[in-house]
Specification:
The structure is a homotetramer of 264-residue chains. Chain A contains eight helices and 13 strands. By secondary structure, chain A is of the alpha/beta class. In chain A, the strands form three sheets. The first copy, chain A, has an eight-stranded parallel barrel, surrounded by six helices. In chain A, strands 7-8 form a two-stranded antiparallel sheet. The longest helix of chain A is centred in the first third of the chain and has 18 residues.
Chain lengths: 264, 264, 264, 264
């Protein structure tokens, strides 16, 4: 029942300066609102819709950028990994390793991530029922690592559409590990723009608020100073300038929710 | 931006005494919590899963029961109608005529209901996109009646399952008419028990809270002193004894939501 | 294991001449191909997307048109009914009363239809699991009428989209009553054109063929000489000129399927 | 418009003897029926529901088993790969590399597979619209490899359930590459048995026949002499003893379909 954590940052790590600009702003915003903060950024977009989509800065430069954010702001950093052999080197910098939704059933990746001892944030696959996360979590637990987070990011609903079932949050919470709402990818429209994904940025605060009212541990939300020109996920990232009001608002709902927990 | 309205009552009208017992309890609960209250009860269950399911007391006795609740407690009453020729007589007693979700595209029923001048609560069909409610609403508007409510009650998601897309609430709100969350039927499992519908009563407060946090006008919630022995919808009705705490909790989220409205 | 029946005609009955033109053509086409034929036409479109959609010729003129088709061609005729009090008069002319998909759980309509003694074709609701048709069928059986047909016409799949689960055909067949594939409405896109439904005419033969290969009793397919100017369901009706080749092709698959039945 | 290819074998490679027993039987069955035959077997089950599920014989033993099948029967062999570095060594034995459905958007895997020059069978993700396979195919094409197969294996439909949209077969075929129906995984019930997947073996022939009637290039079907005791996918594998009749039946529908192609 700790105060809400905000996991926020750009979809892709772009440069050290860019990361520090966003992290700096979010550190201030979260401190002012009483929220915990984790910086998020990807060094590789391994599953772009199109082969022409930008991939990112790569693991070496990515880790340097993340280390820079840690050194300057002292906040934990999260990044996603895509192959077992990335886990150990990435865990030397990243505090939280994130398992992408498409890869949430790849046993070797879950085991390699778990073995690092880092915290592991598992995104629930778009094809997975919330109760089936117990099997996914058990794969990480089998390594002895119980520093686990479970993230809702929407489930397939017809073609090119996701829907978020709010029941999934308390269902996953039964497993005993913190639950995160990914408000950015829950409003993505996979493949919705032909050769890239669309998104509904305007609904990210809607999903975040509804989820926070249920008493979750953290909200994951991608943000950028100019989402429409960002190299990926532009349509569903929240403008950095909109984050202060959003975080303040979410913290109010969080306080109320934590004081009045839902018990199933 | 009026305070939240609670639309609550038993699934079926059972008897005058039963209706008054529930209405009396809810009047107190809502008054204490600062909520507006509408009594809800059905005189006919016209679309039971099985032909052996209990149908209800019928229109004549049903209207007498509803009139009794109005006379004693002065609260508005809502009931659902299933055929055009029921609309005029039912509107002599009921303040709100409800269009069942399966029937939300039956033009004649919408027109007959609209012509009564009563308020019309339209349940969004399990097969309908939220943006398609605009066409449904326009059918009622074509009668000159603009006293319209729009209710979310879940959308088909695979077999025997519904999911509630929280985006549907702000999408429907764009139409300018109040939006209601039906927390009871959103957690139904249609056909889920072979020859009757199942339900997940424990998730009704989850759906209600998430929706209220988004600033909706009303929550629809069926309640019974002994749901497990009720003639219909037992698995998803909330126990009457659990309503006081639930209403108090929802009002807190309502206050916060109304002070901090989501703007799309 | 009789040869395939083709249930075909325009979405709406337009005029006596128009109905006879289509019926005449289809009678020839089916006779040449060895198929049984049932003429189909609606006298009222009771659930148009928009209140401005054309409703049809009405019950009186509609029945006269259907009687004219019977008198001239001797083929059975099918039409859909929307209210209990329509059943008896319509059954004086129509050989098969059809229950619309949205109305497949309206008990009074099913009972009134069943009581006429006519054959009853029940369309499976877009919200219904195939195994739940057993409860729907039992409502008609409770009237003593066992002349029942069950029609697949797609199930809700996200928004504005239907999908046809081919498993539903053998599942419904377990009930012992003939199974029909509605190849026209299975490729509709409900609400897909804003204030009317879209459709994918090109996939109607795809759905028909796949279903016929499984050994079903009948295919329902709407046809029009100029679908794009028809008053309703234009986007998914098959051109009348394309019907001869389609029926011949389906009969070949039917012969093979009936000689090699799938047994579950 | 070549005759149908049957891609069949056990879910997991179990031993050289076991593989040869199944391959030998299938070679005979397909030769007798006039079908082309590809042996299928997995050396690693990389995404089991549970960490306790059996993984398989591994890449070294797996390749030896596959080589043995090729040497003895001269048929092409297919196996699935899960990491980029597996592609080159596996392609030295396997004629067709298969991209698992969960991994169909992992760019590096698609590129590494494409670069081997082997034929690549891409399974469409459970979360992917059929028209979005064009982007997936383009990733392989970007390597200069155009020996591509596209496989339908069902799409997420609510929780623990897949549905096969038959329209996906002609939609994918528009891309110009052969289309395969995976009749085994299309009837899986992911997570449907708690810590393993369920399945509906009885519907595999249903899906296969409906797809073959549409004129596809190949059917993928897993088979085992005793599915209920197989180490994985038991509930949806077809009994080896049922394959001869099934293949003969499918070839009849294939002949008819190839003589009467669907043109969109």
């Amino acid at each position: 029942d700790l105060p809400l954590t905000i996991i926020a940052g750009p979809c892709q790590l772009e440069s050290a300066d860019h990361a520090q600009m966003i992290a700096g702003r979010m550190v201030e915003v979260c401190a002012a609102a009483g929220a915990q903060y984790v910086f998020k950024g990807s060094f590789d977009k391994a599953n772009r819709t199109s082969v022409r989509g930008e991939r990112g800065v790569g693991v070496e430069e990515g880790l340097a950028i993340l280390q820079g954010v840690k050194d300057r702001f002292g906040c934990p950093v999260l990044t996603d990994i895509h192959a077992p052999d990335q886990c150990a080197p990435v865990a030397e910098v990243a505090d939280i390793l994130q398992i992408p939704a498409f890869l949430c059933r790849q046993t070797d990746l879950l085991l390699a991530a778990g073995k690092t001892g880092a915290a592991i944030n598992i995104k629930k696959g778009q094809f997975l029922a919330p109760w089936d996360m117990a099997n996914v979590v058990a794969k990480v637990e089998s390594t002895g690592n119980t520093r686990i987070l479970q993230t809702e990011r929407g489930v397939s609903f017809g073609y090119n559409t996701l829907v978020t079932d709010m029941r999934s949050l308390p269902i996953m919470a039964r497993g005993g590990y913190p639950v995160v709402m990914d408000a950015t990818h829950a409003v993505a429209q996979p493949g919705g723009q032909g050769d890239s994904s669309g998104g509904q940025r305007e609904f990210a605060p809607v999903m975040a608020r509804a989820a926070v009212a249920l008493g979750i541990a953290a909200v994951f939300i991608e943000t950028h100073e100019a989402p429409d020109t960002a190299p990926s996920d532009g349509p569903n990232m929240v403008k950095l300038d909109d984050m202060p009001a959003l975080v303040v608002s979410l913290m109010q709902f969080d306080q109320l929710a934590k004081a009045d927990p839902i018990r199933l």
